[in-house]
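Study this:
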Amino acid sequence: MIRLVIGHRGKLVRGALAAVLSREPDLAVIAEYESADEILALCAGDPRLVVVLDPLLPGRLGIPQLCGRLDGQPVLLLIDREETTSISLALTVAKESRSVGVIATDISPDDLVDAVRGVAEGRPVFDGGLALVALRAGGSPLTEREREVLLLIDTGATVQEVARSLSLSAGTIRNYLSRILAKTRARSRIEAIRKAQNAGWI
């Protein structure tokens, strides 16, 4: 029996995934969550669980960090072909861990079941079409300096502390942050950090 945990931000989607997967005699959905932190609390250290995961799942942990903490545990990332940031993130995570599979959300229920069984058995599961979408979408919009600023902000540093660390003025750092917010289409620094992490830009 393959035991499954589903993590997805959408309640309706979580329920639909659980319904499809639970129909199979060798699959059992034991939990559904809407937060990355809940997933980690239940699943860390239990390689018998397969995690079916939304790459934009909210929580204090970004998906790269969550998958890193679930090291060696089977994870299947479900990607919307229209969300290029999710695709870039998923490719980055899959490259760093052989236990992470990546499929698109528009596959058939039978293909979803096969993908779950594949990651559970340690077989490579990867939708090559997603890689093509990512290549066409291009890389990170952030410059190297903008990445440095955002990474320092992520540590909890203030604008003044970032400025001292990079030998720049506080005004220059604020200008960088304004450009970062525009490029990530974020309303706050915290949202910009999360979006950049989810996209694999930092």
